[in-house]
Each structure stands twice: as C-alpha cells, then as structure tokens.
Amino acid sequence: MNLKKLILVLFCSALLPIPAAAQTMFINPAPLVDFSHYKYLEECNGAIGRALSEYSRKHAIYTDTLPYVLPDYRLRLPDTVVNIAKKCSEKFNIDTVPLTHIKRWATMLLIADRDMEVHSMYARLWDTLSPQGYEEHFQAMFDLYRSAAPMRLEALQMLYKLAMDKIPSDSVLWRLFLEHNMVRVYRAANDSMASVAHMDSIFNIISSADSAVINRKDVRGLIGIFIFANLLPLNEVAALDSLRISTEAYKNHYSGFWQKLRLPLEYLPNWFNSEFPALKSDFSYRSTNPNDSKGYIEVPKSDTVSYPVSGKITALAFFDPKCHSFTQADRRNFSYLQGSRCRQQMTALRRLKEQFPEMEIVLWAKTYGSLGFYVASGPKEEADTLAKYMLEFHKINGTLLVSNTPTIIMPGLDQRRVDLPSDNDLALVSPDGGRAVFGGSEMVLIFDQDKRVIHFSIITGPEYGLVHRKIATVLERARNKGDKTH
Amino acid sequence: MLNKKLAYEYDDSRLVDIDTARKVVDLIYSLSQPMGGTSISIRSWHATGQRWSRNRASMSSDQRDIRLSISRFIDGGSGSVTTNQVDRASLESAVRYAEERAIYMSVAARFSDMPLGSPDLEVRGKNVWSDKTYNRTNKVNGELVSYIARKSEAASMLSAGYIETGSANSYSIYNQDGKISPESTAMVTRAMCSMTIREPRGNGSGWAGNASFDLGELPLHEIADKALDKCIRSINPVRIEPGRYTTILEPQASATFFNMLTLGFARRVNTERGPESPFYLDYDGQLDIHRSKLGLRIVDPRITIKHSPEDPLVGTHPTAGMRDILYVNQGILNEMAYQEGYAREELVSRYPQPVRSSYSVMGGTVTMNEMIESTERGLIVTRFSDPSLVQGSSMLYTGLTRDGLWLVENGKITNAVRNFRWTESPLFILNNLESLGLAVPIFEPSEIRYALGSSSTYHLSLNNVVVPTIKVKDFSFTSTIDAI
Fold first, then answer.
1. With an 8 Å Cβ cutoff, are A372 and B81 in contact?
2. Which residues of A touch B117 (CB under 8 A)?
3. B468 preceded by a cis bond (ω within 30 of 0)
C-alpha cells in the first residue's frame, strides 16, 4: 500500500462514526476517599455523607427489622464513616478554625468522637455571641445533638449549662428556649425522668416570671410550641406510676398554667383517664391460628364482645385506608399498596401482642368503598377484604370491628359518595373537640383494665418504647395489687 | 448474539422494528437471573425538521433515539433502569443494577402491603399512523422550503417557519413469556408546519400553519400561499379605537379560547376544592362538600366539546383507560377529568377519566363569507399570541392579536387593522356566540420526542385539536399595540 492510499484510508476511517462506549455505570461507585488531596471542610463532609448514604443503602433499616428496645437503634455509626471523619479532621487545627460554620465542623468532630473539641468550639462561640445569634446557634446545637449517633447527652448537658450561664437571668425567652429543647432531646432519648425535670424548670421559669412577660408575643409563641410538642404527650407519661406526679396533679398544674396564659382550658385532652364508650360495629372478625390457611373468621353478632375489654389491657387502633399512598406506575401485575404509617402501626401492634400475649388487640375500621386498587361491591365484601388484609396479611392476632359507614350518593352528574359520621364517630370526638374523628386517623389508644385511656398516639418508632414501658408498668401495678389482695 | 451495537442504528430504519425489539427482549431475558419477573418497554422516535428564516434555510435535522426501560421484580421488590444503549455490555450492566436494586428493595417489600389488584382497563383507540409521514425525507421538505422562499422573495417579503415530521413507537412487555403482543404496541406519526411571512419594513405580517398525523392532509403549498396572502393583505394597517367589537375568530384564534376552557376541565378534584375554580358552584354546609357546575349550562347550547379515542383527528394509539369523553354537551358541563385515586375514593369506581389534550368542538354550517356578509362592523382575527391568565375563577385572560387583523364594515373587509391587546374570558365569549363555522384541525405544536412521555408512562400523547371558526359579539379589545 503506498503512502497516498494509507493516508486516504486513515482519512476515511476518521470520518466513520465511532461507536459509543458501553454504558456500564448504572451501579454507584464505591465511596473511596483519598484524603491526601482534601483541603476543605466541605470535601470531608462530602466524603462522610457519601459513606453514610452507601452504608444506609446497604444496611437499610426497616420498621419490622428494628429491635424492640428502640434506644439501641441509635447505635454507633459504622467504622468506615467514623474513620473518614477521624482522618479528615486530623488535617485541620480545630483551635483556630473560624466559627462561621460551626455546625459543619461540629458534625464532623462528633462523628470523629472528638467531643471535647466541639465543647471548646461552642465555648469560644458563646463568648462572642450576642442575643441576635442565640436562636440560630442554639437551634443548630440542639439539631446537631439530637441527630448525633450515639447520643451525647452528657456532653449536651454540659453545653446547656454553659449556655445557661451566658444568658442573662431575666431572659425568660431564651431560658425557656433552652429548656424546651432539652425536653425534646430527652424525649427523643426516651429518658422520661430527665425530660420531666426540664419541664419542671419550665414551670418554675413561668411561675416566677411576670405575667406580662409570659404573654409577650415571642414568649407566648414559644410556650405554645412547647405545649403542643411536649405538654400534651406528657399526659401519657403522667399516667405512669413510676413518675412522681399524678395525672390529676398535672391537670391542676396545667389549669393555673393555662389561666396565666389566657388560653382556653378545653385544649387539654380532658377525656384522658376517663372511661371510654363501647365501640359499635356491623361486622366483627377474629384472627385464627396463624397456621390456618385463612387467617380470620367472622364472629356472629350474638358472640360479639364489648370493646374495650374489661379486666384486660386493650390496644384499640383506628385504621384509615387513606393512610396508604398508592403506587400506580404499572396497572398489570406489580402494584403494591405502600403506606409506611399503616405498616408501622401494624408492626407495632403485632409486636405488642407478641410481648404481652394477655393484651387484647382491637382494630376498628369504617367501610370506605375501596381499599387500594380494590373497589368493593358492597359493605360486606369490603369488610371481608379488610379482615383479609389486616388480620390475615398483616398477621394481627386480634379482633377487627368494621362499621358500615352511612353514605349518600350525590345526585345528577356529580355521583360522589359522601360519607356520613358513623355511630362511633359521633361517640368519639377528637381531643381538639372538632369534627375530626378517630376513624380518619391512625390513632392507637391503650386502655388499662378499667377501660381508662392510658395512652393515645400514632405509634411510630420512638413511641414504641414508651408504650412498651407504660403497659409493663400497668401490668406490674396490677400484679402488685393482686399480691396485696391475696 | 448481540455483542455489537444493534443493527438499527446503522441502517435506514427510523424506528426500532419488531424483530429488533424481540432480539433486545430475548437478550434481556437471557441476561436476567432466573428469578422474579421482568417488564420491558422499548420506545423509539424519529423526527425530520426543516427550519428557515429570512427566506434562507437555517437548519435541516434528522434525529432519532430510543428509550429502553427494564424493570426487575424480585421477592416483592422492584428495580428499574432506563437507557438508550442496547449493546450487550450495557444491557448486562443495566439488568444487574435492576436486579440489585430489586433485591435491595425486597427487604422493605417483604413487610409491605399485599397487592389488592389493579383495574384492568379497556384498551381503546387506533394507531394514528401514516406511511407518508413516516417516509418523508428532508429532501422533499427542503424543496417546499425553497418554494416558499422563492415565492416570498418574488413578492419582496421575508418568510420564516418550520416543517417537522416524526414518528414514534412503543413496545411494552409485561408478560413472563417475553412475547410482544399487538395490544402492547403503539405507533404514531405527526407532521406540522408553521410559517410567518412579513413585509421587510414591518408593515404587515401573515401566518398560516397546521398539524396532522397524516402529511397527506397537510396542503403545505396552500398553507404557504395563505400566509403570503394574509401578509400582503395586512400591509399598512389602520388604527381604530379599542372597545367591544363583533369579532370573527378564525379556527386558530378560537382554539386559544377553547384551550383555556378545556384546561379548566383537567382536574375535577381542583374544582371541588374551593371557589378558585371557574366551574365551582357552592359549598354544601350540610354535607360538608364543595359542589361543581357539573350538569349546569356553562356556555352556548351550540357548543359541544368531546374526545373520542377512535377519531383519527383527535384520537391516539390503542391505550388502556381511554374512552369517549363528552366534556360539554350542548353547553352543559358534562364531565371533568380525574385520576384513578379520585375515582376510587370519591366515586367508588375503578376507572379514571384521564386528561386529554386532544379534543374536537362540534362545528356549525356557517361559512366565513356568510359571517363577513352578516357583519355590520366587526373584526376578523387570524390568531392570538401570549395569552396569560389574569383571574382564575372567571377565566379572564389577556393577550395580543397577531399576524392578520381586518376590519369588516357593512359585510365587506375594508382595512387591515393595527393589532390590539385584548382582555377576555372564554366563559364570556362562548356565551355571546353569534354563529359557528365548520370545525377543522388546527396547528397545535406537539413534538414527537415528547410523545414518549416519562419513563413511568407507556402511552404516547399528542395534541390534536379540531375547532370551528366562531363569530362572537362584544369581544373586548382593551388597547392598541404597535406590533404587527
């Protein structure tokens, strides 16, 4: 081949389309970290974030796989992540870094187990901080410590004291702010005694403060948040014998508290600790032995029992079909109902029954016309499907009561189904006294043996430990009472 | 074995044909681990385009692409990958990732909720396919551009516009045997053309355009002649006082208002949420619900707006859940669109009423000439531009007239008129209807590549609108503008 031909071939081959390389990068790259090139904090935090997300991806934690003792959930972070933070933080002189991005520095240092340096950074910050910066930095500090794993309650307590010393003693707002956040942290850590101690501090601050200060817009706003975030759930804690103040005492305490705040007392869940009305139902089902092919049987009307059950601890869960979000990407074979809230409730109930076999689990649902992609032909068929779904599929060992919701169909072209309140809805008005009813929520109520409410909430992860302890306490109290009687 | 790029990329076929699709499906099945289920969708599109401006061609394009989605379902979990690379190495990597993701998700799904069945929706519609559109080449389009440019130059005018033809197809495989069934195959074609011809000093402008699935239905030379004619007739417009005029809206102009109206039918749930919707009626305190105007007259009784999946002018390819929709029946609001969730929760029905951007308005028999002859003093509008919402509940919009506006006096066109800004509502003008002309397809831009939709939908959607010329009383022109 002469040179001209060769050049011509090379020229022509250059004009041919070059096939694109195969796309083989569908899988995320491993979070390899080369610290030698890192110069900035952001690079370190990015590496930590990548390692964390990779770890979460591979070790996803699902509700059903969580251990019973929830504080264990907040275990130490994986070594890979901690090592990255340690190695990366060694590149910086923490004593001299500017405090402008203290939260980012502190995030890395806490992961690297360098708690004392976080403490000294915040000490430096408090020395220079003016009241204008309180909210931003206090809030950031609590966010940081609330999400730290493992939790550093002692370190936070030290910082809290440091901050309290800096705040002027007459600054009601900021003292309340710190106390309120401490309550939240201890509640997240399931340490009821410590959270009650900080609540007492709040009551003390309010008691000693001037009424005009308490009703100042910013202070009153903060107290409002505190009430709805902490005080109402505190009723649950107050029902425990292990705590020193009884429900009634707390109610009285609140009474003065609310009067001082010039807000209506009706906001309190006054049905707490009162006897619950018996539930009504049109269809009733009971779970059968889990080994049976059909996991439920219908209970004849004549055999139905009044719920809550007298002499037993009863968990009563209101099931709302709307708590599912529906996926409808494919219409043929692969559609699943997905609803984390529903699943969490079902899981919690299943576990409670496993741990307290003597407990009665009761689910109450209303007919709604459809469940998931399934549209029922009538109330009976819908009730059967609900039983199959809740007792058989979710393996709930308990009773399902289904109320036939009275409905009307809008005339003309409208044709909407309008649900009217069922008997239970009318009997059970929600805590805020409004028209919202339990049938439209996923609320779980726990009753003691005297059919009195000892707990109400949606049982999400952190709530489970509290419910568990509360039931154990009530059972122990009953046992002790029985021993004394004998 | 497909260990190189698939053949279709290098040959003349514009879309993935069924044999190639079968090869891809077989390869994916052979690469999948023997567990769980697989769903595959292969969609491809092709488009040719010619653009020109100032009587010179500015772009000639020939584009094509595919979108391959693989979903693996293992032990209740699912994982999906979408790619446009179909060589063996890419496919293997995609399948592995989908499987890894599905296994990972199955941990969650194991404790997830049971499937309660999804509705098996009826498949309706016909493939809107034209071989003439599919086979159109840029060479032929280029000749047309040349014709328009020459003609405009001869008339000392400047022309600009575009001609686009395209086709798309889709294969969806949900069954475990991997067979591609005719029901899961969709094919569409689309041709559209829009051109503006202007007087070089900005003293006049004319527009014409149209769209159809069938290029044979688009008289491109006539469209060009019409744009030129409008341009010449619109030169040196006179300025007249703004105010309320009897107005003849050519189909392209009337479509602006019908589009506004049908947009209001898009979500029934919004209408029943509160008084912000134009079709909201009142609040029923006894039942605690908001009521809509369903069943009440909202426009002139001569107006009927519908969508039929089998009508080739507005329909689309066979798709699940399609059915005849009668939005407005003789002026009465008859239906509004809603999704599957609304159907289940509010109507206790399994069947959604999907939103359709294609629709037809039943026309009348009055010709344009008859409309002009019966007008004592009024205006003729070619089209509107830039309509924007002023107030939602009354559907009040504002916009501009463009590319041809004429004054009619004593039954004759007397002058071209300077453009106006208008402020008007379809609810007002469609209740002030004087006469209706013949309904015809109009230009509604809809690019073929977007017909493929997102990866989660497997139907192809196009906008096709058939509307009549309408003559309305007291159309509100609020100010004059200098634009042509």
1. no
2. 335, 372-374
3. no
b/e B373-402 (16+ beta carbons within 10 angstroms → b): ebbeebbbbbbbeebeeeeeeebbbbbbbb
Partners of residue B81 in chain A, C-beta under 8 Å:
26
Which chain B residues are Cβ-neighbours of A19 within 8 angstroms?
4-5
Q: B254 near B222, Cβ under 8 Å?
A: no
Q: Measuring CA to CA, how many Å separate A227 from each of A143, A203, A214, A221?
A: 19, 11, 14, 10
Encoded amino acid at B17, one letter: D
Taking Cα atoms as reference points, which of B45, B10, B308, B300 lies closest to residue B166? B45
Q: CA–CA separation, B482 vs B484, rounded Å?
A: 6
Q: What is the DSSP string of A223-242?
A: HHHHIIIIIHHHHHHHT-TT
DSSP state of A329: S
β-bridge partners, B50: B60, B163
Q: Which long-range contacts (CB under 8 A, 24 or more apart) does A159-168 make?
A: A159/A119, A159/A122, A162/A119, A162/A122, A162/A123, A162/A126, A163/A126, A163/A138, A166/A126, A166/A129, A167/A134
The dihedral of CA B257, B263, B268, B273: what is its sign?
Answer: negative
Interface contact A24-B89, CB threshold 8 A: yes
C-beta of residue B270 within 8 angstroms of C-beta of residue B289: no
Measured from the Cβ of residue B174, the count of other Cβ atoms closer than 10 Å reads 19
Largest CA distance in chain B: 80
Residue-wise pLDDT for A387-445, tens only, equals 888 888 778 899 999 989 899 999 999 999 988 877 777 766 544 443 334 445 567 88
Cβ distance of A393 and B5 shorter than 8 Å: no
Give the model confidence (pLDDT) of A243-285 as tens digits: 333 344 444 555 555 444 443 333 344 444 455 677 888 999 9
Structure confidence at residue A370 (pLDDT): 80
Whether the ipTM is more than 0.85: the answer is: no
What is the predicted pLDDT for the residue at B125? 72
Cα–Cα–Cα angle for A159, A175, A245, nearest 5°? 95
Q: Comparing C-alpha atoms, which of B40, B46, B42 is closest to residue B15? A: B46
Q: What sign results for the dihedral spanned by CA atoms B301, B303, B309, B312?
A: positive
Enumerate the residues of chain A whose CB falls inside 8 A of the CB of residue B341: 326, 328
Q: Which residues of chain A have pLDDT under 50?
A: 63, 65-73, 234-251, 258-273, 325-339, 430-439
Of A23, A57, A326, the CB nearest to B341: A326
